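cron nightly-structures :: item 1 of 1
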Amino acid sequence: MDQGAPQLTSHTRGGTTLVLRGGRTVSGAALGDLVMIDGHIVPTPPRRSGAPPVDLATPPSGADAVVVDVDGLTVAPGFIDLQINGGFGWDFTANPERVWEVGSRLPAWGITAFVPTVVSTDPGTIAIATAAVVAGPPPGYGGATVLGLHLEGPFLAPSRRGAHDAAMLRPPSPELVSAWSPSTGVRMVTLAPELPGALDTIAVLVGNGVVVSAGHSDATFDQAMSGFAAGATMVTHLFNAMSGIGHRSPGLAAAALAHPAVIAGLIADGHHVHAGAVRMARAAVGPNRIALVSDAVAAAGAGAAARPVRLGPMEISADGSVPRTATGVLAGSLLSLDRAVRCYIDLAGVDASEAVGAVTTVPAAALRLADHGRVGGARGDATILDDDLAVVATIIGGRVVYGGDRLAVAT
């Protein structure tokens, strides 16, 4: 990259056409010219070695193109976080109106879209949170796209509640969830499939277009499989807060690994799941069924000034490695999603392409989002990485929203 070239600052809009030139895919293949017009990636024919670049002096949109040199860098699809409780000092359950403030800072972690997570709480707080999401971003917002809420509870097994407040738990209710849908701000719900009323509740949610994930559960193998048959397609933070894989009494974790299609959310921070269990899970499900999540709490990215902080109604503290309640129960993480990618490579022994797929292709598939999680014919979202898979820049909707001062405008 020519360090003497003009620099593209993070706030540069550059009309409606952005071209990334000279980058490579996560697998290492030459990318050629990646063209983003009006916020979407448009297909361009591959360029032969030695052939001149695509002529974008008059791009199809009629706007002047900004051509950015990403030679030597990896252009990945935008990262998607399916489970994030907050960050930078703000908790989504306690302060749901701060979702956009947090979202504006998530591109520093390579995140272009996320599902803000609200832990077990009262219906009034859920209503406030859904209203904040449905209202949409403030004017001029340039952060990660909010895909709808992940309601982690309140339909959880008391025996597996983890850091959730026992007073906030309630039985599953088809009536309570009848209005929950992506259009009303709810994209994903975690519940315990063995609870009375859970299967009927799953059916209503799935019928409304909500992704159901089994978690915080003491389900037997058969109860878990019944939940999957009813429409649950994921498990929340595999191995954590769920019945395990006893050889005579297998539970939810075993059912998730044995099922041919269930996607497993996984916190790959080296604290929540032992490396041996991570490798076992990867060997059982293959490369396309693990979605890395941060499960980040308000203390993540906030520095020491934010400790102690809240996770919903619970006060938690972080010692610099992992947050816990006053009784020592794990309570989310301080993990950023880009670090989760690097940790997963170390824990599972997978290659970079697969690890990046676990924060792009797999979560997009989990949410059934055809326009996310890939480079080509999708939204103009991209995460630019260096050789160490550290985030160099983040592009959302064809606009550089983070790291623009590190990218050189081609001349």
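cron nightly-structures :: done
Residues 33 and 54 are 7 Å apart (CA to CA).
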